[in-house]
UniProtKB/TrEMBL annotation:
Belongs to the FPP/GGPP synthase family. Its cofactor is Mg(2+). One of its GO terms (biological process) is isoprenoid biosynthetic process. Gene3D superfamilies: Farnesyl Diphosphate Synthase (1.10.600.10). Keywords: Magnesium, Metal-binding, Transferase. This is Geranylgeranyl pyrophosphate synthase. Pfam families: polyprenyl_synt. The keyword Hydrolase does not apply. GO terms for molecular function: metal ion binding; prenyltransferase activity.
């Protein structure tokens, strides 16, 4: 066991008001800045060029917006399991989750060729601009891709370091670390299943659910809840209830993200709204739409929603969006989100958490999955 916790920002709240997940999400910003400052100092000692061109970009992405949902869910898991007192372990776990999220975003944008992230250029786009500005030789795309992969790796290394330190200082460290290990493996598996589905043209609902579960539901909600609960030494029934609640809410979150990827406003979501439409990404929304089109004999919609190559015209994008409305796919997904969110709240109630914690969790689920989610300028 290591010594006392490093100084961490305790959540601040007005006198007389109970501490909320939003208080914790704000406090983790301070913790992230402290952790990033420490890592940047070490990186500058290693190599100043790498620090300036890679490490500082990672830090800028981490601090450039984001809902901090994973931190808030970890807090709810901790409180549902009876956690109280010093919040430093939860804040540091939340900061580690935000760092691993940065890794996922950087790598995901490279694989998808996404130009925007959190309202600014994706990291690989920034590296392409650096290549041009510095008059480097060789293909800019190859340099940008390689550098972005390394930037994502650095974010993951920082996340692992922070979580490991937290586990070593916690009496429940082994349980915390086992949850973290499982989460990392699920993330990679989900990303692989995603690119494999695109490469093979898989377009069924079952495949879409597997990808959504592994790539998003587990590491966005279920594992953060379990990480927080592990820090409080949760018993098996509480953990089981939290896992079920997290699985349902996490799937609802991903389905909402699918809708935003097709119908959202880029000015509000911070990422392109037609990316899934152009790539025919095999999302749950597309799988449902194609099934409905085939069931009702709408050949035009079925063809538009079928897996295709990357060359999709602006007219096809508009027609595909209209087909998803016309077949009723958008309405079906909205209904499924509501169903999953309601199930999540029922599962969470089984934890026996205090009413205030249940209300916090309900507000979080609404924020992540509700009709207005992603429409208030927050980017994941």
């Amino acid at each position: 066991m290591l010594g006392p916790w490093p100084t961490a920002a305790e959540p601040v709240r007005p006198a007389g008001r109970p501490l909320t997940a939003r208080d914790v999400a704000r406090a983790v910003e301070t913790e992230l800045r402290r952790v990033l400052d420490e890592n940047l100092r070490r990186t500058r000692d290693t190599d100043r060029v790498f620090a300036r061109e890679v490490a500082e970009r990672v830090g800028a992405l981490v601090l450039r917006g984001g809902k901090r949902l994973r931190t808030a869910f970890a807090w709810c898991g901790w409180r549902a399991a009876g956690g109280s007192g010093c919040a430093a372990p939860v804040l540091r776990t939340g900061a580690a989750l935000e760092l691993v999220q940065a890794c996922a975003l950087v790598h995901d944008d490279v694989m998808d060729g996404s130009p925007l992230r959190r309202g600014g250029p994706a990291v690989h786009v920034e590296f392409a601009r650096l290549h041009k500005a510095a008059r480097m030789v060789g293909p800019a795309e190859a340099f940008a891709t390689s550098a972005a992969v390394l930037a994502g790796d650095l974010a993951l290394a920082w996340a692992d370091d922070l979580l490991t330190e937290t586990a070593l200082r916690s009496p429940h460290g082994p349980r915390l670390y086992r949850e973290w290990q499982a989460m990392r493996g699920e993330m990679v598996a989900g990303q692989y299943r995603d690119i494999r589905a695109q490469a093979t043209g898989a377009s069924g609902v079952a495949d879409a659910v597997v990808v959504a579960t592994l790539k998003s539901a587990l590491y966005t909600v279920e594992r953060p809840l379990a990480l927080g609960a592990s820090l409080a030494g949760a018993d098996a029934p509480v953990l089981d209830a939290l896992r079920s609640a997290g699985r349902s809410a996490g799937l609802a979150f991903q389905l909402r993200d699918d809708l935003l990827g097709t119908f959202g406003d880029p000015a509000l979501t911070g990422k392109p709204a037609d990316e899934d439409l152009r790539t025919r990404k095999p999302t749950y929304l597309f799988a449902v739409g194609r099934g409905l089109a085939e069931a009702c004999g709408d050949r035009e919609a079925a063809n538009l929603l079928a897996p295709r190559g990357p060359s999709v015209s602006d007219d096809d994008v508009q027609r595909t969006r209209a087909a998803l409305e016309r077949t009723g796919a958008r309405a079906v997904v909205e209904s499924k989100i509501a169903e999953l969110a309601a199930a999540s709240l029922r599962h969470f109630d089984r934890t026996g958490a205090e009413p205030s914690v249940r209300r916090e969790f309900s507000a979080l689920v609404e924020r992540a999955c509700g009709a207005g989610a992603g429409c208030a300028g927050e980017a994941a």
